[in-house]
Design brief:
The protein is mainly alpha-helical. It has one domain. Helices cover about 55% and strands about 5% of the residues. It has four helices and two strands; from the N terminus they run E-E-H-H-H-H. Strand 1 and strand 2 form a beta hairpin. It is flat and about 70 Å long.
């Protein structure tokens, strides 16, 4: 006998009203990667600046505080934008995100993260890409040349 097991419904209560969590797809996660790209870049710049300070304590030679400050601000703003996008996609029926305090947002993000296994989505994606490359599969469709017609042949 066939038995289909579906994921159970996940709902949260925000301001006294219940909202269903919409599970994220690989496409959602990839779309949001653009939102987090500046964060990753800024985090790399920030880390490089901190490592430079750690290697040369007391020296600010070559370290531009403005660059460091801007990198940190970019990371913070990027995280905020990215997290809001994750929440908007996960709870599409709720719209008043500006009224949700920081700690509640973090709790909601934890629910989203645990329910969706975002890390697993990325691992699955990269595993498929590696397998395709290992098999020599083309990542783009090949162009085909139409067969030449010879005199007297019809389509």
């Amino acid at each position: 006998m066939l038995k289909i097991m579906r994921p159970s419904r996940v709902a949260v209560e925000i301001f006294g009203k219940e909202y269903d969590l919409r599970r994220l797809s690989l496409g959602d996660v990839m779309d949001m990667a653009d939102t987090f790209a500046p964060v990753i870049s800024a985090a790399g710049e920030t880390l490089a600046a901190f490592l430079q300070l750690k290697a040369n304590p007391g020296s600010t030679k070559g370290l531009d505080p403005t660059v460091l400050s801007n990198a940190i601000l970019t990371a913070i703003h990027g995280c905020n934008d990215g997290f809001r996008e994750v929440l908007r996609r996960s709870f599409p029926d709720f719209s008043d995100w500006g009224a949700v305090d920081f700690s509640s947002s973090v709790e909601l993000l934890n629910v989203v993260w645990e329910t969706n296994d975002v890390r697993g989505i990325w691992e699955n994606f990269f595993t498929k890409v590696r397998e395709a490359i290992a098999k020599g599969a083309a990542l783009a469709p090949e162009k085909t040349t139409p067969a030449r017609r010879t005199k007297g042949t019809q389509r």
